Amino acid sequence: MTVSLLQRILQEREDMRPAERRVADYVGAAPSEVIHMSMAKLSEICSVSDPTIVRFCRRFGFEGYQDFKLNLAQSLVPSAPFAYEQITPQDGIDNIVRKTCRNSLNAVQRLAEDLRPDEVAEGARLLQAASWTGIYATGISEVNALDAEHKFQRLGMRCQALLGKQRQWMHAEGARPGEVTLIFSQSGHTKQMVEIAIASRAGGARVVAVAAGDSPLARVSDVVIAVRPYDQTELMTPLASRLNHHLVTNMLVTAIAIASGSEFPDQLPALDSWQTDKI
């Protein structure tokens, strides 16, 4: 995995002298400002000398401040492969905003590069042809199941988000031909979701999984829309990974809308049940 300049600064911060640490803290908190700032201005803000700024830049392999700023600017642009910048207790609100946005942008870019359109097309074909769709998820992925239910129902599809182990088993064991089981799973290793897929197929339903491509769930599904998982998904589920699953739902909805002859496929119709009073 490629380590960005900002990540390197964070990693080496504790080994720096106090003066350089002040520079590291400011660069980490306001990188978009630093790339437009003169060395004299940065020295003034950080209460350090110009030579300290030069030493700081050379610490990371740059000849001088201008080279450092150029690389810093490049590190602010979403890049592949995806690198998740962990938010730390030392981060101020500026850094929280920047890292959250950058992680999300990087995630979307990686999804665009990795996702196979034919998988989305095949998943949309099965969902459109289904007599009924059960949408399954557990844990934080339940948010994705509810989002899919809301959007599919607005297309007029018969579907339901099934949450809770007992409810899921009741429906999976009663699965029938013509139905589709749609499963959202970050890792594709959740035992409950794998067993749901197996039970659904045993009853004759088709299974579409939005999950890691090389996973136990993928191996027992009819169609896999492969979304690469993120590190340590059992310990943390970054917003970026959930965002990608939401985007896959939007792709499926749009593909189904186009196949159904919608004039505005990327704009869901506002059905009566979803309308609200406006002030």
Automatic annotation (TrEMBL):
<dbReference type="InterPro" id="IPR046348">
    <property type="entry name" value="SIS_dom_sf"/>
</dbReference>
<dbReference type="InterPro" id="IPR009057">
    <property type="entry name" value="Homeodomain-like_sf"/>
</dbReference>
<dbReference type="InterPro" id="IPR001347">
    <property type="entry name" value="SIS_dom"/>
</dbReference>
<dbReference type="InterPro" id="IPR036388">
    <property type="entry name" value="WH-like_DNA-bd_sf"/>
</dbReference>
<dbReference type="GO" id="GO:0097367">
    <property type="term" value="F:carbohydrate derivative binding"/>
</dbReference>
<keyword id="KW-0238">DNA-binding</keyword>
<keyword id="KW-0805">Transcription regulation</keyword>
<keyword id="KW-0804">Transcription</keyword>
<feature type="domain" description="SIS">
    <location>
        <begin position="123"/>
        <end position="262"/>
    </location>
</feature>
<dbReference type="Pfam" id="PF01418">
    <property type="entry name" value="HTH_6"/>
</dbReference>
<dbReference type="InterPro" id="IPR035472">
    <property type="entry name" value="RpiR-like_SIS"/>
</dbReference>
<dbReference type="GO" id="GO:0003700">
    <property type="term" value="F:DNA-binding transcription factor activity"/>
</dbReference>
<dbReference type="Pfam" id="PF01380">
    <property type="entry name" value="SIS"/>
</dbReference>
<protein>
    <submittedName>
        <fullName>RpiR family transcriptional regulator</fullName>
    </submittedName>
</protein>
<dbReference type="GO" id="GO:0003677">
    <property type="term" value="F:DNA binding"/>
</dbReference>
<dbReference type="GO" id="GO:1901135">
    <property type="term" value="P:carbohydrate derivative metabolic process"/>
</dbReference>
<dbReference type="InterPro" id="IPR000281">
    <property type="entry name" value="HTH_RpiR"/>
</dbReference>
<dbReference type="InterPro" id="IPR047640">
    <property type="entry name" value="RpiR-like"/>
</dbReference>
<feature type="domain" description="HTH rpiR-type">
    <location>
        <begin position="3"/>
        <end position="79"/>
    </location>
</feature>
